[in-house]
Amino acid sequence: xxxxxxxxxxxxxxxxxxxxxxxxxxxxxxxxxxxxxxxxxxxxxxxxxxxxxxxxxxxxxxxxxxxxxxxxxxxxxxxxxxxxxxxxxxxxxxxxxxxxxxxxxxxxxxxxxxxxxxxxxxxxxxxxxxxxxxxxxxxxxxxxxxxxxxxxxxxxxxxxxxxxxxxxxxxxxxxxxxxxxxxxxxxxxxxxxxxxxxxxxxxxxxxxxxxxxxxxxxxxxxxxxxxxxxxxxxxxxxxxxxxxxxxxxxxxxxxxxxxxxxxxxxxxxxxxxxxxxxxxxxxxxxxxxxxxxxxxxxxxxxxxxxxxxxxxxxxxxxxxxxxxxxxxxxxxxxxxxxxxxxxxxxxxxxxxxxxxxxxxxxxxxxxxxxxxxxxxxxxxxxxxxxxxxxxxxxxxxxxxxxxxxxxxxxxxxxxxxxxxxxxxxxxx
Length: 428
Known about the structure:
- The protein has helices at residues 329-334, 373-376, 384-393, 395-398, 412-425, and strands at 3-5, 25-26, 33-38, 44-49, 53-58, 64-69, 75-80, 86-90, 95-98, 107-109, 116-121, 127-132, 136-141, 148-151, 157-162, 168-172, 176-180, 189-192, 197-202, 208-212, 216-220, 226-231, 237-242, 248-253, 256-262, 268-275, 279-284, 290-295, 300-304, 407-409.
- The chain is mostly beta strands and 428 residues long.
- It folds into two domains: 12-304, Methylamine Dehydrogenase, Chain H, CATH 2.130.10; 323-425, Cytochrome c-like domain (Cytochrome Bc1 Complex, Chain D, domain 2, Orthogonal Bundle), CATH 1.10.760.10.
- The strands form eight sheets. Strands 2-29-28-27 form a four-stranded antiparallel β-sheet, with no helix packed on it.
- Strand 17 (176-180) and strand 18 (189-192) form a beta hairpin.
- InterPro entries: Cyt_c-like_dom (IPR009056), Cyt_c-like_dom_sf (IPR036909), Cyt_c_1A/1B (IPR002327), WD40/YVTN_repeat-like_dom_sf (IPR015943), WD40_repeat_dom_sf (IPR036322), WD40_rpt (IPR001680).
- Residues 325-426 form the Cytochrome c domain.
- Pfam families: Cytochrom_C, WD40.
- This is C-type cytochrome.
- Keywords: Electron transport, Heme, Iron, Metal-binding, Signal, Transport, WD repeat.
């Protein structure tokens, strides 16, 4: 099969979360996945990608529940908020607040004049911190109102993290970590580092670590003193994550692979994944047992932190939804679509509308599915020819403004096999 996913120049990570809580892969983004956040209940995650989309996933079923279209450019940061809400932000400088089941943001936070690179939620859940390439950090009251603007960095701010007492830490390309006390009339503490910084993480016992472009992770105390350092990669650190149980710290690199460390001793435990595949986003499950990682191959993989094994479809897990079509070339092509689309009318809609009865159906006409506004303005009837054209040139060109991941099928035989499969499986 010669199915290819088109990637833009800015692309670096695509997201794919699999089909069971037993472990799998999340697939759905049309570009690299830059950010991952897991909700407090451990059942839902949000991801952001260079395809300008955010996706909300069920970690219990592996289904993409919502594809969120709002941002004009890549989504570099996401966060899980109280009461089941989510936030997304990116290169357009805007922060969108989302509620479950809503296809448009319930509010938009504007004010940054540069890309937003990171988000963090305060321990009490009342404030959202944002780091921007406009050299500022902003504290947004989630109940509404104007943000507090924190200025002190001398360049791009790449990361933010809260300590348990509400102290905010920020790190940037100016090779500095700044600690902003919760008492805003107190002078911030600035810690100058040897190299520009790209990531921050606070552990369960309130230790603070910064990742640098030299592949090292450094611990910084509240007085701005560097307490120690450890090399976690030969290339720039791209992401850091700490488990809530205090057991692990994970560090990823542009050179590929994930270094898993004991959070107490900082002793490397093992390396996850292969070198050469950049990993750009990390998030531990709420119980600290598994780690989600988004890589440059546009896949978010799940790892067992205790064993170091990549989790996949377990024998005791749900059956392969495509198992009944074993041996069908068209079914193998459709496998890339099954996370977002159903074939049976009883299964309803997922992140994309059901494909049951697609041939002869006008675009954007499935009841109860929230289409993007661009789709509703198009005059297309789905036929074998138009579906084939969609995958020949890609959704971005054929249906601009679509929520669909950017996927093309370059081999005419594969496209023909997919059409035959859909004709057989989607008719009444």
